[in-house]
Amino acid sequence: MENTLHIVGGGMAGSEAAWQAANMGVRVIIHEMRPQVETFAHRTGNLAEMVCSNSFRSDDDEQNAVGLLHWEMRAANGLIMQMAQRHRLPAGGALAVDRDPFSESVTQALLAHPNISVEPGEITELPSDGHWIIATGPLTSSALGAAIQRETGAERLAFFDAIAPIVYADTVNMDVAWLQSRYDKGETEAEQKAYLNCPMTKDQYEAFIDALLAADKTEFHEGETAGYFDGCLPIEVMAERGRETLRHGPMKPVGLTNAHTPENKPYAVVQLRRDNALGTLYNIVGFQTKMKYGAQTEVFKMIPGLENASFARLGGIHRNTFLNSPTLLDDQMRLKSRPNIRFAGQVTGVEGYVESAAMGLLAGRLAAAEILGKPLPTAPQDTAMGALIHHITGGAEAKTFQPMNVNFGLFRPVDGLKGGRRGRKDRYKAYTDRAKEEFNQWLEAQI
Ligand SMILES: Cc1cc2nc3c(=O)[nH]c(=O)nc-3n(C[C@H](O)[C@H](O)[C@H](O)COP(=O)(O)OP(=O)(O)OC[C@H]3O[C@@H](n4cnc5c(N)ncnc54)[C@H](O)[C@@H]3O)c2cc1C
């Protein structure tokens, strides 16, 4: 097998992957379809173009999981972070950048690298030999999308995400909510208590429907067809179809008994389903939405038991091509059915510029190490990069897999620390301290 690494897609992930692999001494070819083939969101032919916001979010590496990912990428000599720093704009604690100079300087750095070349053009088939990383992002071209589906099965590559909001389990008020599966279904106690249930009276339900109907919503981008499939209608659209629709759909109260007041039959029930193996995250079942983020927090906090909930991520419906990574990829990010191909970036089911670049960094290093004959273990699970890769290739529920951004709910607990809101500051500091130490050890082992 030839020793060149081919990277399809020069976005956040592909650019970072190329930089890392080239710095390890591997020859890299980036195949980028823009500007010959355009997407509805990109405006230029630059590599690493920011398609929407100009922010890499929080830069706090002690109390924020995204900030920790910044720290890890800087420690690994990441190109995206270097250029973001160079073109940084004042934005309080966030890392915002001047977008065009940022992507121009990423492009120039890659073109100037002696081990990297860029071959313009769309890749439309999955290659059968050679070393490849596919980093074609949320707007993967349709021809390549179809080729991926032929390999994986149509149901394992989605073209939209319909994300229900995800809540930190320890912020749910268990004096109001209770654990129970509908009709106590399941063989084991864990299965019979797989859901968190939040009850509503008639008045609470009516007020909730009013708030849903009145909330601010976002529209689809131009060129991004709505194409709701029936299984994932936004809740506010369901509410528009009739005030009782939700009560007969995701909020139906049947088969559930309020453990706190068994004599009171709830009028409606909001169910939350476990979202990760650790049991730290729960998603609100059937609550995909196009409400604006501010409106979502206001409306969802009206749900009894979620008055003080913190959200690991809010809901949304977007054009987004992504794999069912928990079933398709190994922890080296290789396609199990064709291990010469890795995937990286948003197409693996992470969400956001930072997460995508981080997955590119990891894939670039793993691929280069394999080409050089010195295979590398994937990032340790207690680092931010490791928590993400562990989630998408193993920890996440495969059946309900939806894209994920980095958050502390993906981290294993540190023993002996207080839970809940009060202990949060110490807990987050402990997570970030542990992650930095382990990330440094992982990097040192590569020297
Ligand atoms: C409309 C929209 C708005 C978004 N807003 C934000 C935001 O505000 N903040 C945020 O953090 N994230 C946002 N995202 C998500 C964002 O796209 C990702 O976080 C990030 O860009 C993903 O990086 P990536 O490298 O995986 O994909 P991209 O950066 O999209 O890079 C993929 C590259 O692959 C190329 N490509 C695709 N198919 C082929 C092919 N067959 N052959 C060759 N090249 C190909 C594309 O041209 C592109 O350059 C948004 C996404 C969309 C669609």
Your description of this structure?
The chain contains 13 helices and 17 strands. It has 447 residues and is α+β, with helices and mostly antiparallel strands. The chain has two domains: 281 residues, 3-Layer(bba) Sandwich (FAD/NAD(P)-binding domain), CATH 3.50.50; 149 residues, Beta Barrel (Elongation Factor Tu (Ef-tu), domain 3). Helix 2 runs parallel beside helix 11. The longest helix has 21 residues. It is globular and about 75 Å long. The protein starts with a strand and ends with a helix. The structure holds flavin-adenine dinucleotide. Flavin-adenine dinucleotide binds next to helix 1, strand 2 and helix 11. Flavin-adenine dinucleotide (FAD) binds next to helix 1, strand 2 and helix 11.
Estimate nothing, just give the exact number of structural domains: 2
Question: Architecture of the largest domain, according to CATH?
Answer: 3-Layer(bba) Sandwich
Helix content range of the residues, please?
25-40%
Strand content: 15-25%
Give the averaged pLDDT, no decimals. 93
> How would you write the strand order of the largest sheet?
6-2-1-7-17-16
> Can you write the helix and strand succession as a string?
EHEEHHEEHEEHEEEHEHHEEHEEHEEHHH
Shape: globular
Query: Largest beta sheet, briefly?
Result: 6 strands, mixed
The Cα radius of gyration reads 22 Å
> What structural class should be given to the helix and strand makeup?
alpha+beta
Identify every distinct bound molecule in the structure, by name, code or SMILES.
flavin-adenine dinucleotide
The CATH topology of the largest domain is given as: FAD/NAD(P)-binding domain
Number of alpha- plus pi-helical segments: 13
CATH homologous superfamily assignment of the largest domain: FAD/NAD(P)-binding domain
Low-confidence stretches: none
* CATH top level assignment of the largest domain: Alpha Beta
Q: What is the CA–CA distance across the termini? A: 25 Å
